[in-house]
Amino acid sequence: MPVDSRVSQVRHLLRELLAGREDPESFFCFCVSILGHQETRVRFRELISPITYVHHQLHSQLLSIYQEYFLRDVDDELELALALSLVNTNQTSTQQPVPRSYAQLASATPAAPVRGHTQGMDTNISMGTHKTPGWTGKSPNVPKTPDRPKESVTNKTATSENKGKAEATSSLANDNDSQEKLDADNQSEMSRKSRRRRQRKRQQQLLKSPSSPRPILMWFRRDLRLLDNPALIGCLELGGPVIPLFLWNDQEEEGPGVTVATGGACKYWLHQALVCLNQALERIGSHLLTVKAEPSSAEVLQRLVKETGAGTVVATALYEPWLKERDEGVASTLQQQGISWQLHHSYCLRDPYTVTTQGVGLRGIGSVSHFMSCCQQNPTGAQGTPLDAPPTLPVPSTWPTGCPLEQLGLARMPRRKDGTTVDWAVNIRRDWDFTEEGAHARLEAFLQDGVYRYEKESGRADAPNTSCVSPYLHWGQLSPRWLLWDARAARCRSPKFQRKLAWRDLAYWQLTLFPDLPWESLRPPYKALRWSSERAHLRVWQKGTTGYPLVDAAMRQLWQTGWMNNYMRHVVASFLVAYLHLPWQEGYRWFQDTLVDADVAIDAMMWQNGGMSGLDHWNFVMHPVDAAMTCDPIGTYVRRWCPELAPLPDELIHKPWKCPTSILRRAGVVLGQTYPERVVTDLEERRTQSLRDVAEVRQRFKEYVDQHSGCDLVPLPDRLVEEALGSTGEVLRCGSRFLLPVITRMEFKHQTADPDKADGRGNPYNAVLKGYVSRKRDETIAFLNERDFTASVMHESTQQRERAERHHCLLEGLPASPSSATSRGRPRRTPSKDPYSIVPGGVAMPQR
Ligand SMILES: Cc1cc2nc3c(=O)[nH]c(=O)nc-3n(C[C@H](O)[C@H](O)[C@H](O)COP(=O)(O)OP(=O)(O)OC[C@H]3O[C@@H](n4cnc5c(N)ncnc54)[C@H](O)[C@@H]3O)c2cc1C
């Protein structure tokens, strides 16, 4: 049966419901049975929207049933969902089918004004029927009074973030004509347009009337989207004309330390994203006002409030401590003048300031599993469902003055002496679509293809196996909630991929705990490490001319496109820190300046970990040649970014210095001319030196090494001290500091205990990865333990055999056998008794 006739059947049933001949739950069941699962999910809210006002209670009841039904999870997702607080914890999991991807819905939309996503979701989608598996026509198991997802708004009273487009905008429609609208809706396509016309008219009336509500300033920051933007929907719910606004102040963004918060590539992206946002707003009848926030955002907002008579400023919360502080200042200035300030949470899945370690403790802090346990143990309410984009925005009668976007200086290009421009962003433009639709297209493409290889092959640099949505997430052109919903709804649900959003939240949590994260090593001794000051080494790393093809390919990709995958970021970070001995901060700053997804929290967390001083410092070092076995086995990636090496054979392309002269000659490669010589040659020696340096500072700052477990100790931030001790600040007042043992590389523990063994090669815990280890951290550790165990068992049996041989020789008066003689002096691969295998206890200890 065509969709239209099924929809009219449902409308008929709605009349039956209104007449009292059906009950809400049966109505919903019929709806699922007639329309199928997906159609119901997409159309239900629109179908019931005509009764929003006249039958408000019934409408809410239906909406609750709908939300309850579609928020149910399948078992295998429950753990993650709970941890990320996607569902209410008191909901039990049932085997309900998961909704289809929003992005899929969007792509099925034929001619949506906002190129593809939401307009069509409520209205003109043509899709095949999707029958609920196992549907028996029985009522779905929905409670009578289901929980509504809580909303996450600061300074705000009861508004529902889970209202969709129809609800959000219907407040502008005439209350008294809902029955009329019900009939009008029967004319499907026509009705949408006429409803919009009515809404526009109503908006204009509102603006003209003397009692018009005051305008609302919608302050866009890192939520540059129309879809699933709770702040924007929050503006609509307030019911006044909305003035979309973007303010820019470099210093405020930068904060107190050296953060390079918005580097060149990121600024360029921002400029383009603002152009796109403005276009999207124009399509819904509005536009974006851009203003230089000088001298400060607070002062500019005050001016705008005066100029427009606005009564409320609405924004999405940002979590960098310095931006939070700025926002608190803005809020108090505005509130003193009677202007209300509303802050919505949608940048992360969890507001990092609400995450606590209560009930979990501090053991394993810094790891993603510890973080997820904290979220699971201390849920803060459900995230709710993603929101549709508003079809229209009420505009003010007069607009305040702004400045052209160009004047913000975000995409300024250097000029040559002859006056021509150096367009360094040409490849970035070629590679990326800066629109919100571009974000959804990337995600959709990934969920149809790359996600199938993500679990095992996300490290491949030569294949598009990851989502490439990081810059969109950073600028909020894609909400993490939307991403998670789509990922959960995809046919192949990769838990590893979903977990990445927990990583993202973890980074913000760490930044809120350690505001110095972007510039100060968390582990105090490592601040004193003997870092190299070889600027020439830094330059070759930055330019991609280290002479190591894999590293060079990645650094050139970064320079040209503003991006590289996670695995390659590990490779180049390891190279900088472990082999060039350059401080991690140099890497962080370069990344911040060149990545289009540069994100202070994530970048700083990852560089701290790579730089050995983060909470979860890497237990491995990537080898610049061996890593290619995993990420570029036949050299496709290197050939793309280092074309001068392209003719070399696969097996030698990652180590051209090993090439026989004849092959080099045939390939036209001259080392030192067409391709650089290696910046450092003895990698083993460099690594050994790095180990010695670590051992030296750990010896020197013994007070930061736990003598019992051998783990590094990190000063505990105030917030965690209070949580750990349940104290209300007493400890802090008397000035005591608390130290926390954190996960520490076995290699470091061993080296510190035995520093005289100058040759680091004797260290049994060599962290250099030989090829790919894609396992999860715990599995990796288990694997290493098992290997060690096997090694020690083998060693034991060899020793037993040798002992027996020695005894035999002794008894028979024979000379000692050569095998036993040589093996006696050989160093053990695994220490017989490992004093360092104790896992950090997670107990805060007063500093000795
Ligand atoms: C040294 C170093 C620096 C990094 N700097 C940044 C940065 O500045 N900005 C940034 O967004 N990511 C950074 N990452 C994390 C990661 O490399 C990128 O998020 C990822 O490569 C982006 O590609 P994607 O969207 O295809 O990721 P996918 O693998 O498809 O993951 C989806 C999303 O999850 C999030 N994510 C993935 N990995 C991580 C992670 N390890 N930590 C936190 N969130 C994660 C990102 O938002 C990403 O877009 C860094 C990693 C390293 C090793």
From TrEMBL:
Residues 193-203 have a biased composition (Basic residues). Keywords: Chromophore, FAD, Flavoprotein. This is Photolyase/cryptochrome alpha/beta domain-containing protein. Residues 120-129 have a biased composition (Polar residues). The record marks W531, W584, W607 as: Electron transfer via tryptophanyl radical. Residues 90-210, 811-848 are annotated as: Disordered. InterPro entries: Crypto/Photolyase_FAD-like_sf (IPR036134), Crypto/Photolyase_N_sf (IPR036155), Cryptochr/Photolyase_FAD-bd (IPR005101), Cryptochrome/DNA_photolyase_1 (IPR002081), DNA_photolyase_1_CS_C (IPR018394), DNA_photolyase_N (IPR006050), Rossmann-like_a/b/a_fold (IPR014729). SUPFAM superfamilies: Cryptochrome/photolyase FAD-binding domain, Cryptochrome/photolyase, N-terminal domain. The keyword Glycosyltransferase does not apply. Residues 214-349 form the Photolyase/cryptochrome alpha/beta domain. Belongs to the DNA photolyase class-1 family. FAD binds at Y454, T466, S467, C468, V469, S470, F497, D597, A598, D599. Pfam families: DNA_photolyase, FAD_binding_7. The keyword Transferase does not apply. Its cofactor is FAD. It comes from Alosa alosa.
